[in-house]
Amino acid sequence: MIMGETRHTRLLIIGSGPAGYTAAVYGARAMLNPLLVQGIQPGGQLTITTEVENWPGDSEVQGPALMERMEAHARAMGAEVIADHVATLDLSARPFRAEADSGTTMTADAVILATGAQAKWLGLPSEEKFKGFGVSACATCDGFFYRGREVVVIGGGNTAVEEALFLTNFASKVTLIHRRDSLRAEKILQDRLFRHPKIAVLWNHGVEEVLGDADPLGVTAVRVRDVMSGAVSDVPCAGFFVAIGHAPASELVQGQVEMHHGNYVKVKPGGTETSVPGVFAAGDLTDHVYRQAVTSAGMGCMAALDAERWLAEQASQPAPAEPQPMG
Ligand code: FAD
Ligand code: NAP
């Protein structure tokens, strides 16, 4: 697209995870010529993982490769995929209006929100200080830097366990710290974790501070507190990986569509309609329960079908009468 231009589309899809690309496949096949804006993470969350073992049809596939296939599929069906990021979105009037970072303006008859979720952080000042210098939320991106070093992962879900397992490829020791005495990760992953000789689990502990050197900036340990006894101790590490879950990326539509449960976009039960007619939402942005690639893809399909139906209804309604001159 040309910088500063204005484009109109029947269907604008925001986000390039499984929800966005699936919506694009269905939208293109419905001849809606959808425009999909990828955002700063083309391919979404699965691009920061390695093996995906629960995508139907593939007993094992690499996350980035799966997302490349989805993008190619969307393009092959006729969707236009744009490497840009939507900076603002105005849903107060139709056509809806999106301004992208490149300076392009996009207007759309219908919008599918598929902006997914982003990693949560502990919110510690020391975590902020060492981000990119020993503190990370992505083992696949940064694990390589910790070859032969000790690392700590915090969290008890699938992400934390997968990150810990992945880090064993590089680190000499991985300590998983969890605030309770049981994990919420899938049993198959727990089993792999407990059997791994390089992994130790520190139960019932929270991280209070990231400790490190100033010159060069780098992590040396995390200060932990036993949630039962209150005892404080330090766990030495060169890398600290935060894997405490994800929050919906709903800032773009804050105050414009109804939300619930920690800013997840609310959709009609069993559907994808948001509180604004013509605006649909799919995937992790809406889902605080399942948050899987396959459920996001399923919702992307539903959103495109809902959008197609809604657009057809609009087209079949009589055009508003031209204003008549008074008197
Ligand atoms: P996401 O994948 O989160 O994609 C969101 C998209 O929106 C991104 O492309 C982003 O660039 C875009 N975006 C955001 N804001 C804007 C904006 N303003 N303008 C334009 N674009 C924007 N699930 C599984 O089923 N199996 C697994 O093995 C698995 N492994 C995982 C491993 C990790 C490390 C993580 C973090 C998650 C994993 N998940 C897994 C969960 C799965 O990745 C998500 O459920 C799924 O990716 C959600 O898809 P989505 O399309 O809703 O959004
Ligand atoms: P999650 O399931 O929400 O787990 C977050 C974990 O972090 C929980 O164990 C939670 O503890 C802990 N936690 C939350 N806030 C914390 C804090 N402030 N301090 C310390 N610990 C904190 O998140 P996730 O693991 O990122 O998974 C998100 C979704 O993606 C899930 O639906 C998951 O199934 C999916 N996913 C799937 C796969 C896969 O299928 N292989 C892989 C990765 C992710 P509590 O347990 O005490 O609440």
List keywords for this structure.
alpha/beta; about 325 residues; FAD/NAD(P)-binding domain; 2 domains; disordered C terminus; binds NADP nicotinamide-adenine-dinucleotide phosphate; about 25% helix; binds flavin-adenine dinucleotide; five-stranded parallel sheet
Structure characterization notes:
It is a single chain. The chain folds into two domains: 6-119 and 246-314, FAD/NAD(P)-binding domain; 125-242, FAD/NAD(P)-binding domain. Strands 1, 2, 5, 6, 7, 8 and 21 form a seven-stranded mixed beta sheet that branches. It is 24% helix and 29% strand. It is of the alpha/beta class and 327 residues long. The protein has seven helices and 21 strands. The protein is elongated and about 70 Å long. The termini are far apart. Flavin-adenine dinucleotide binds next to helix 1, helix 5 and helix 7. NADP nicotinamide-adenine-dinucleotide phosphate (NAP) is lined by residues 54, 122, 154-160, 162, 179-180, 184, 206, 244-246, 291-292.
Write the SSE topology:
Blueprint: E1 6-14, H1 18-29, E2 35-37, E3 51-52, E4 61-62, H2 63-77, E5 80-82, E6 86-90, E7 96-100, E8 105-113, E9 117-119, H3 125-130, E10 135-136, H4 139-142, E11 150-154, H5 158-167, E12 173-177, H6 187-195, E13 199-202, E14 205-214, E15 217-226, E16 232-236, E17 239-242, E18 246-248, E19 259-260, E20 264-265, E21 279-281, H7 293-316
Parallel strand pairs: 1-2, 1-8, 2-5, 8-21, 10-17, 11-12, 11-17, 12-13
Antiparallel strand pairs: 3-4, 6-7, 7-8, 9-18, 14-15, 15-16, 19-20
The chain binds flavin-adenine dinucleotide and NADP nicotinamide-adenine-dinucleotide phosphate.
